[in-house]
Amino acid sequence: MGWKVIQERIKPKRVKQSAHLARVAGLGCCVCRGPAEIHHVRTGNQARDDRRVVGLCAGHHRLNADAFHQLGSSEAFFKVHTVDLVREADWQWAVSVNEGLV
């Protein structure tokens, strides 16, 4: 009887970027400037990463008919709100780096 070697994929541990997340949430929703929760922006099959986040209020994040999770993609969200979530998230990361938060 032979042994079957099973290879496991080891994911790199991501560090929580608490100061960055707090700063982005404190800015408010990037659509209406209301109180925000964090939305992780992903492209393709990318894993969730605290470096690419935007602030969205509960309505624009998950509750309203025009919310991100109702529309289903950054492209559909852009068509409705004309907010490029990828660009906004990358800009917010650059600001946090520039301010020395990360």
What does the model show?
The protein is mainly α. It contains five helices and two strands, in the order αββαααα. It has helices at residues 18-27, 58-63, 68-71, 74-81, 85-98; strands at residues 37-40, 53-56. A two-stranded antiparallel sheet has the order 1-2. The protein is globular and about 60 Å long. The model has no long low-confidence stretch (mean pLDDT 88).
Number of helices: 5
How far is it from the N-terminal to the C-terminal residue, by CA?
Answer: 52 Å
Strand segment tally: 2
The radius of gyration is 17 Å
Helix content: 40-55%
Mean pLDDT: 88
Please trace the helix and strand order, writing H or E for each element. Answer: HEEHHHH
- Biggest sheet strand line-up: 1-2
Classification by helices and strands: mainly alpha
The low-confidence parts are: none
Largest sheet: 2 strands, antiparallel
**Any idea what the shape is?**
globular
Our estimate of the beta-strand percent is 5-15%
